[in-house]
Amino acid sequence: MKFSDIIGSTADHLRSEMQSAQVVHAYMFAGPAGTGTRTLADICARALLCTGKGEKPCDECPSCRQYMSGNHPDVIRLQPEKSIGVELIRETIDALAIHPYESSRHVVLIYDADKMTPQAQNALLKTLETPPGDAVFFLMTDQMTSLLPTIISRCRIVRFRLLEDKDAVNILTGQHGMTTERARLLARLSMGSVGRAIEMDGSEQYWKTRDLVLRALSALHGPEDVGAAALMLSESKEQAGSILDILELCARDMMVSQDADGEVIQTDLVGVLPTDRFGGAQMLGSIMEARKRLSSNVSWQSVLEMLFFDMAGGKHLWQQ
Ligand SMILES: [Zn+2]
Question: Cα(68) to centroid of ligand 1, in Å?
Answer without folding.
Answer: 10
